[in-house]
Design brief:
With 276 residues, this protein is of the alpha/beta class. The chain folds into two domains: 158 residues, D-Maltodextrin-Binding Protein, domain 2; 93 residues, 3-Layer(aba) Sandwich (D-Maltodextrin-Binding Protein, domain 2), CATH 3.40.190. Helix content is 33%, strand content 18%. The strands form four sheets. Strands 8-7-9-6-10 form a five-stranded mixed beta sheet. Helix 7 links the parallel strand 7 and strand 8. The N and C termini lie far apart (44 Å).
């Protein structure tokens, strides 16, 4: 039985329960995982703060590491039945067979990607934030749309930052596109670009740890966009485990568990000015 899972978490859970699908029972995943009695989860290589602490997802420390184990437990898996593998971001979003049951490394749910992979219900709605450098701020850049239009932007070409720049900022010059965020950061350090758009937790880490003079200039709340940036657990297209994963995410959303995990691990995301 296959469902198109839309609507509130409560309505999704009610739908699944009425259809006799176990929301938190291990038999929901029976025979559907890559390895019997094991849930194989993938993350980045490396995985960064605050998503995974110290590049050790098995520690359950960090927002996505904690989410992964919460989902696994609701699906009926003990912590010891979870095994981790690594993949690059671009590798994971390609079509074809996967070596994981699901993967989480800030994958935004988009229609284009859903044509070749499956996503779970969203586990996080990300505000997007502007990362820049102190010389740019000292040069007059402010957290206003008008000020941002005049900056030279860079972006990771495979992320939703590119369409969001066009939709929200509408810069005077086309952004320069790069293969990953590391290249974006190096371009900023080399004065090739003035600013970049990243999800807020990644922006905070970038400015504080990866740059000597980094600044998070401001944030666009998720609701600012007509298509808010939402993260989903990525799976191979047609994965029979999807119903079970969706049920777990829906239940964790409904009972406040995801909100509590977000408060614990992403609390540092508060206090950044909102760009209206």
């Amino acid at each position: 039985m296959t469902f198109t899972l839309k609507g509130t978490a409560t309505s999704v859970v009610a739908l699944m329960l009425s259809a006799g699908i176990a929301v938190a029972g291990g038999h929901c995943a029976a025979g559907k995982t890559l390895t019997e009695d094991t849930l194989t989860i993938a993350t980045g290589n490396p995985a960064y703060y605050p998503w995974v602490m110290d590049d050790a997802p098995e520690s359950k420390a960090g927002f996505e590491a904690a989410v992964a184990y919460a989902v696994a437990n609701r699906m009926g898996f003990e912590d010891g039945q979870v095994t981790w593998v690594r993949s690059s971001f671009d590798q994971a979003i390609q079509p074809g067979a996967k070596d994981f049951d699901f993967n989480l490394q800030q994958f935004s749910i988009t229609e284009e990607r859903e044509e070749i992979v499956d996503f779970s219900l969203p586990y996080y709605s990300a505000a997007m934030a502007v990362v820049t450098r102190k010389p740019v701020v000292e040069g007059g850049a402010e957290a206003t749309l008008e000020s941002l239009k005049g900056l030279l932007w860079g972006a990771h070409a495979s992320t939703t930052a590119v369409p969001m720049l066009a939709e929200i900022v509408q810069p005077n010059d086309d952004p320069l596109l790069y293969g990953d965020n590391a290249d974006v950061i190096e371009a900023m350090k080399a004065n090739q670009i003035d600013a970049a758009l990243m999800d807020l937790p990644t922006a905070l880490f970038t400015a504080a740890v990866l740059m000597d003079d980094g600044v998070v200039l401001g944030q666009f709340p998720a609701a600012r966009s007509e298509n808010p940036d939402q993260f989903g657990l990525l799976m191979e297209e047609g994965n029979p485990l999807k119903e079970c994963v969706d049920a777990a995410v829906a239940e964790l959303t409904e009972d406040g568990t995801l909100a509590a995990i977000e408060a614990e691990w992403l609390a540092a995301a508060t206090g950044v000015p909102v760009i209206e």
